[in-house]
Write a structure and sequence with these properties.
Elements (H helix, E strand, L loop, with lengths): L2 H20 L11 H18 L3 H22 L6 H14 L4 H25 L6 H4 L2 H7 L10 H12 L4 H20 L1 H7 L1 H6 L17 H9 L22 H5 L13 H19 L1
Length: 291
């Protein structure tokens, strides 16, 4: 199965999800196709970082696509935008591929500093929740400043994408990575385990003299809950039914990933149309959904 085939499957899943989200009367379960579509594009980002002749140019294409999609989101009020997530995965992969250990450490430190500073700015100094006018432009802010999204596709998915790249040549390790992500997601979002983890600081506090009643605390307002939310576990959605937010459907994409033969499948691998086709496909889909 070539990269072209994998991307066409991912695009088809994306189209079905768009129909489920936007077409009146369409079955709601069509939206579930968004999850295998996302993981397939994340998987191909890792291989693209291996095969592309100019990684800087590849990062620019991801960045520009994210900005265009964010502008469309802001104008037409449509969601979501996976390009900021794909860009974060690609940035980290490019850094980790560097053979110089000191350069890797320096770039990782700069990357973390950039993300932390903006996270503090947008969550403490200029928080979206307290500045509605700023919240209207949050998609553009995330895209323009190349930030990890704090909603939809968050830090946890970035980690999964980097791990899939790390274990890309081992079907066993790749499968374990995807299935482990599924198990963690189900445990955190669809069982009581997630709620126990959410209240972990209060369980620990209850062991000491300053015990706090759990019912008196808003779990979404604590630093621990904000950290969990940044990873990708929404405190207010924990304990939901298995089919309410089925991110675990990313496992459905695993057979496609395992069948990938590491070939491009394009008649002319270096053509401009090949490079930009899938970058324009998603923004075009957003406009179609908005219409």
């Amino acid at each position: 199965m070539t990269s072209l085939t994998v991307k066409i499957i991912a695009a088809a899943c994306m189209a079905l999800a768009g129909i489920g989200m936007r077409v009146p009367g369409a079955p709601a379960w069509l939206e579930w196709f968004a999850y295998p579509s996302l993981i397939l594009f994340m998987f191909m980002v890792g291989w693209s970082c291996e095969y592309t002749r100019n990684r800087g140019d590849y990062l620019v294409r991801l960045y520009m696509s994210g900005v265009v999609a964010a502008i469309i989101q802001t104008v037409f009020r449509v969601e979501p935008n996976p390009f900021p997530l794909l860009l974060q995965i690609a940035i980290l992969i490019v850094i980790l591929r560097d053979g110089d250990r000191m350069k890797r450490a320096r770039y990782i430190a700069l990357y973390v500093l950039w993300q932390v500073v903006w996270f503090v700015l947008l969550n403490q100094i200029f928080p979206f929740r307290e500045l509605p006018w700023l919240a209207d432009y949050r998609n553009m802010i995330v895209a323009f400043f190349a930030l990890i999204p704090t909603w939809d596709y968050r830090l946890g998915m970035v980690v999964v994408g980097v791990l899939m790249w790390r274990f890309r040549r081992s079907p066993r390790k790749l499968g374990i990575t995807v299935l482990a992500a599924v198990v963690v997601w189900i445990a955190m979002m669809n069982t009581r385990i997630g709620l126990w983890v959410l209240y972990l600081p209060y369980h620990l506090d209850a062991l000491g003299p300053g015990a706090i009643g759990l019912g008196a605390v808003d779990p979404g307002s604590t630093a621990w809950a904000i950290a969990l939310q940044y990873i990708g576990f929404d405190p207010y959605a924990m304990g939901a039914p298995l089919f309410a937010q089925p991110l675990w459907l990313i496992a459905a994409a695993l057979p496609v990933m395992l069948l990938y033969n590491r070939r491009r499948g394009f008649p002319n691998p270096d053509s401009v149309s090949r490079k930009w086709f899938f970058y324009f496909l998603y923004p075009a889909g957003l406009i179609a959904c908005a219409g």
